Amino acid sequence: MENSKNLRNWLDAFGLKHPLVIAGPCSAETEAQVLKIAHQLKETDTTVLRAGIWKPRTRPGNFEGVGALGLKWMQRAKEETGLLTTTEVANANHVDLALQHDIDILWVGARTTVSPFIVQEIAEALRGTSKTVLIKNPVNPDLALWLGAVERFYEAGVQNLGVIHRGFSTYEKTRYRNNPEWQIPIDLQNRFPDLPLILDPSHIAGRRDIIFDLCQTALDLNYDGLMVETHFDPDNAWSDAEQQITPATLHQMTIDLRIRKEEGDAIEFKNKLATLRTKIDVMDHKLLEILGKRMKISDEIGGLKKQNNVAILQTKRWNEILGKMILEGEENSLSEEFILKIFKAIHQESINHQKNVMNAK
Ligand code: PEP
Ligand code: MN
């Protein structure tokens, strides 16, 4: 798959705009709902209509999709609006039905990407066709598993490929439904710069208010497209109600987003600079998160020392840490001067945290 420029062909062949906008409801609910949303999206920058027909739900008992019936509604929406169509396939039978109904793009869901057996089964069902397949990241933060799924399709002769970044599960509560872990798609982009990369801000966010910012970050990182869950009545959607936006909001969002064009030397320079800066922002954000977590541990240590009546400052331990960090710093091309400064500051903050805990009543 290395250096396969043809992976991007489908983007050009469809005459797609940058960024490619895929939008539509989490789930197809009724024929009228699919058609109404499709007609509204026709008036936006959307090129591809999405709708889930078979819905993978974390727990049983929730709405599990309308099934094959919905494919007819998608077909009708395509005839009436000219939008391309996409849906999720999770087994070979889904693939056959989607092909029969002329669905243009198939996507593989996050819960499917984790299973090489199912991925292989879907890839075999597509052997010899020229369908475009988009592969969502697996639910767990594992780049190899994601790439493995892409390779299975490539080796089955499916060459119109792309990936969708929809975030990763964590047990820890964060502001996201699925943590973005930007570093993973950035690594993937560095290894396969020609593999189209699409952001699904809806499943990362799990709520409406941060969808715009997620899209902007993706565009600054040179993503090729956005897949956004869209419904004319988000609050009453049958699935993922909290994260869907209206076609009108989507339209305004595509106007407000800063979209970088990729032509000309000066523009190319600015694009590269913006991409690198965004990568740094992502890392700085991670650094702060890690420092915050480190200080929480200091708080716990403070509590423990208080209970056991032990002094805060333990110079011997601190000198050992510092010596180790200077050596590790060298291995990472960081100067001794920098390591001393940064750890002195971290140590001071840590002592302050412990003091606060010990002084608390
Ligand atoms: C979806 O796009 O509706 C969906 C179920 O996504 P994911 O596989 O990312 O959870
Ligand atoms: Mn959804």
List keywords for this structure.
14 helices, 10% strand, alpha/beta, binds phosphoenolpyruvate, TIM Barrel, binds manganese (II) ion
Q: Mind explaining what this structure looks like?
A:
The protein has 361 residues and is α/β, with parallel strands linked by helices. The protein folds into 2 domains: 4-259, Aldolase class I (TIM Barrel); 272-359, Up-down Bundle (Chorismate Mutase Domain, subunit A). It has 14 helices and 8 strands. An 8-stranded parallel barrel has the order 1-2-3-4-5-6-7-8, surrounded by 5 helices. Helix 8 links the parallel strand 6 and strand 7 (197-199). Bound molecules: phosphoenolpyruvate (PEP) and manganese (II) ion. Residues 26, 52, 56, 109-111, 136, 166, 203 line the site of phosphoenolpyruvate.
